[in-house]
Amino acid sequence: MTATPVSLSMPTVPRRRRTPEHVAAAAPVAGAKKVLLAAPRGYCAGVDRAVIAVEKALEHYGAPIYVRKQIVHNRHVVETLEERGAIFVDETDEVPEGALVVFSAHGVSPAVVRSAEDRGLRTIDATCPLVTKVHREAVRFAKDDYEILLIGHEGHEEVEGTYGEAPENTQIVNSPQEADTIRVKDPDKLIWLSQTTLSVDETMETVRRLRERFPNLQDPPSDDICYATSNRQAAIKKIAPQADLVIVVGSANSSNSVRLMEVALEYGAKASHRVDFANEVDESWFEGVSTIGLTSGASVPEVLVQDVLRLAAEYGYGTVEEVVTADEDILFSLPKELRATLKEAGDSSRGLGGRGQRPQS
Ligand code: SF4
């Protein structure tokens, strides 16, 4: 059974129509109006892989396909996949026995995997390989009897998944302030790991404070904050000091998008706002603004950024300069459960261009 491939090329929320009065309402500013567009921005390799996994599952197995939690933290992506037959659930006990469920890019704890097995569910694990790497570190250090200080936001799905690998050995550190008060069993057998989508600077501050108290605290074998998070923050750090306003395209529950907004302010942007869609941009934000910084979180299709650019052009910000701080060419192979099916079906396509741009069909 096959289904039509999902297209993420058009937003599902209509844009607010701009009138000449709207445009005139934006106060004139001295100097040329321009947009500094961050690069890299938008889709990372883990999001790309997870979204394609759901698309390919819909195409090859047919709707409905169940997905535990939001496949990635982006409203547009989730709503578009829902329209095509994906059903998002909070827990596997909401999935009918024997049905197919996809685990999201943020990862799951072993308890969730067991629960799916117990219910006879077929699964596709779309956990980002860089999250899986952190899970493996947690398992390995717990096995060697280390206590793990997991820097991250309690309640975030990724943190729940990593914590669930070794709950007896793990404590969550939510903030630099918590580093000052946390109590450990043995200060000489201690390692820190982290959520992949945190602020690089704030995490380093948390580690600094932890190390002040526990000098023998070990570092992870390699960075847990992923390349996509670091690169997007580096790009906005370069833009922020020149920006009167930074707009971040991304959803409220997207950790890396919210961090981009915070980082922009820390690095000198006069104002910073997050929007899911261009029609959420408030025209009052443009008052007195000559330079807009624009970026997007790692789960955001490029089409949504282009919508904001079009809107900005209507207000006179037609000059766009891309500020490139890194090139990204990472691509992850699809989940193994899916690869076998695609091979059998002779499907060798991944169906995606760069940065979440879909080929038009
Ligand atoms: S933000 Fe990083 S860890 Fe998360 S899905 Fe993207 S590449 Fe993977």
UniProtKB/TrEMBL annotation:
Its cofactor is [4Fe-4S] cluster. InterPro entries: LytB/IspH (IPR003451). It comes from the Bacteria. Transmembrane segments: none annotated. It catalyses: dimethylallyl diphosphate + 2 oxidized [2Fe-2S]-[ferredoxin] + H2O = (2E)-4-hydroxy-3-methylbut-2-enyl diphosphate + 2 reduced [2Fe-2S]-[ferredoxin] + 2 H(+); isopentenyl diphosphate + 2 oxidized [2Fe-2S]-[ferredoxin] + H2O = (2E)-4-hydroxy-3-methylbut-2-enyl diphosphate + 2 reduced [2Fe-2S]-[ferredoxin] + 2 H(+). Residues 1-10 have a biased composition (Polar residues). CDD domains: lytB_ispH. Residues 1-20 are annotated as: Disordered. (2E)-4-hydroxy-3-methylbut-2-enyl diphosphate binds at H73, H106, H156, T196, S254, S255, N256, S299. Its EC number is 1.17.7.4. The active site is at E158. Keywords: 4Fe-4S, Iron, Iron-sulfur, Isoprene biosynthesis, Metal-binding, Oxidoreductase. Isopentenyl diphosphate binds at H73, H106, H156, S254, S255, N256, S299. [4Fe-4S] cluster binds at C44, C128, C226. Dimethylallyl diphosphate binds at H73, H106, H156, S254, S255, N256, S299. This is 4-hydroxy-3-methylbut-2-enyl diphosphate reductase. The gene is ispH.
